[in-house]
Amino acid sequence: MEAFCELFFDNLATLLGVTGAAMDVGRIGGLNNFGDATDLYKATVTSEWTKIYYDWNIPACGLALLFGNVWFAWLATRLATKENRLDVTAQPYGMNTTVIYITIYAISLPAIQAGFSKYNPGTGASDADSIALGKKAAEFGWKVSVATNFVIGFMEILGCFLGDIIRNTVPTAAVYVPLAGVGFVWLAFSPMLTIAKSPIMCLLPLMVVVFGFFGNVRYPVYGKITFPIALLAILLSVIFGWAGACKRSTEVIGGAYGDVSVSDFYNGFRAIPGTGASGTCQGTDKDAAKDAWKAYAFKGDIFGGFGSGLAGLGESDLMDDFAAPALLFGMIGFLGTMTCVESAEAAGDAYPMSEIMIVDGIGTCLAAFAGGMFGTTVYIGHPVHKALGAKIGYSLLNGLIYFIFLSTGLFACLYNVIPECANGAILVFVGLLLARQGFEETPERHYPCILLGLMPFICNWAWLESDGAASKNMGVLSLGPSGGIVQGIILAALTAWAIDRKFEEVTVFSIIVAFFSLFGIAFSHNDLVYSYGVWGAEHQTLKVYADGSGVDKDTGTPEEAFNGWRWCVAFIMVAFFAACHIPFQKGNKYTKFEKIPPRIEDDAEDPYDYSVHAAQAAEEIPK
User: In 400-482, where do the E strands start and end?
Assistant: First the structure.
């Protein structure tokens, strides 16, 4: 039961978080000044986007979750039968958190902007035309998002040919960087900021999770039955939130802050009708909860977008721009899956890499076919569920409940009655545990590699913190996009090989990365394309950036802003420098002068243990 609650609320936290982001996209897409249009047209774009999100996208997510959870339960049953064990834990399955957050701003927002412009009726349109065209604009944004999601899923399927190769080639530290990075930054650090916004409502639930999961404290209900820790934390947040712990002023602060109100510092705040200057946070607004129940509970056009969303593949103008980022996002997905398989094997359950990647991709493609903009994936956290005693049933139960829950319109209601930080406490626990596993499975000498690999994830958070708005820090733009996963793996791998004095690997890998940097696959997603306050899709377009013309002919961006070729030159320099060490290394067949210590092949060896090195040097002194 504990494991099921953890997985259920883990998925719920992701859905609540991305729903807030999706609502912001709809608001920005419909109400901001992207062109002259009637107010009714703008309002219709926003309201129709919200309706499509709950009626078509959310049920599609439920169908994909059912498929994946059932498949992984069956896969665990096969493993248990094969190895004659009763302690096999099914791989957890859920929403692809990292990729979803990226695509909301990199794909969905530009798509809804394009729909707004394509169907804009102008300022003199009738009410009927404004409503009809506003619906078409929102549907256009949805179709392009669905089509891109399908391409991402297809790319994840293709990853089955690369997963084992990458896993067996790169150092362990690099394999665990996505686990530690997503765990620490997105599952621990980001939710902790949400908790810190409302300490009266959220701090005690966090400590309940710490007491329960880290301290192993249990709260008996009857006999051996204990109250689920995750459920207790959620209930406390809900009780405190609805008791007014989240209520704040909406008045302007003034002074050094200018025309900024208190609520501007807290995302998701809504003014409370009839209270003048009071506001409350998402999930504690009585009127919003009532409106959601009336509009969506057990009603609506559920699965109304089944099959029709793939029409977005025919929008060549946008898909030409979005195809390359979609391939990159798919690569991010299968790299994360690779880490999850490695993590499960370290915990005692060895699953086939290729099959899991294929199932991940099929689940995402199934969601897209059913009208979903969001992909699904095997969840990081298998060791956490195993430690909580999970077997196979928790996965089946999670899939069935989510299918029912997301297909009945109840999710829209729940989004408006559960505060965002309620699930944050659980995510902090999961994130910290996963980050810890990254260190536990890595040789001590490679700890700096994981820490260095975390930095691109932090940059990705900083890049997205402004809801997709541009950052002027070119270091953030170089390291942060694509979830930080590609950059994190590269930095960790190079650093690990450098520590182990594996100069051949550093040389070859640097040349490969240098080539990739020219095409936007690594370290060159920084072309400064900026429109309407957010990054355009061209921000991650695969291309050779500099052709000498001074201005890029596709985007109009000055080529001085393109840094891919600079990273290419830098990595070639690294490759040359590493290669210069090869003739001087002991034990190398190309060695001419043995001046450099040999490669480190033993994971127990620590190059920082100078006492050992001193003892070895003493043994070599002639007696």
Answer: none
Average per-residue pLDDT in the chain? Answer: 79
* Structure confidence by residue, pLDDT tens digits, 98-141: 778 767 766 787 788 888 888 888 888 888 988 999 899 999 98
Q: Where are the alpha helices (DSSP H) in 33-126?
A: 39-52, 58-83, 97-103, 109-119
Is-contact 74 20, C-beta < 8 A? no
pLDDT band at 619 (very low <50, low <70, confident <90, very high): low
Q: What is the residue type of 240?
A: F
CA distance 252 to 259: 6
Beta-sheet strands, E only, within 456-577: 530-531, 534-535
Tokens standing for 463?
Answer: 């890049």
User: Measured between alpha carbons, how far is 428 from 433 in angstroms, rounded to an integer?
Assistant: 9
Reduce the DSSP state of residue 581 to 3 states and report it. Answer: coil
Helix (H) and strand (E) counts in the chain: 24, 9
pTM for the complete prediction? 0.72
Of 118, 31, 104, nearest to 534 by C-alpha is 104
Question: Shortest CA distance to 501 belongs to which of 591, 601, 610?
Answer: 601
User: What residues contact residue 291 under an 8 Å CB cut-off, 6+ apart?
Assistant: 416
**Helix orientation angle between 229-240 and 420-440, rounded to the nearest 10 degrees:** 140
User: Nearest CA to 402 among 4, 27, 62?
Assistant: 62
Q: Of 291, 347, 325, 328, which Cα lies nearest the Cα of 144?
A: 325
Element (H, E) at 278: strand 278-280
Q: What radius of gyration do the chain's Cα atoms show?
A: 26
Instruction: Report yes or no: 155 and 392 within 8 Å, Cβ to Cβ.
Output: no
**CB half-sphere exposure, 544, CA atoms < 13 A:** 5
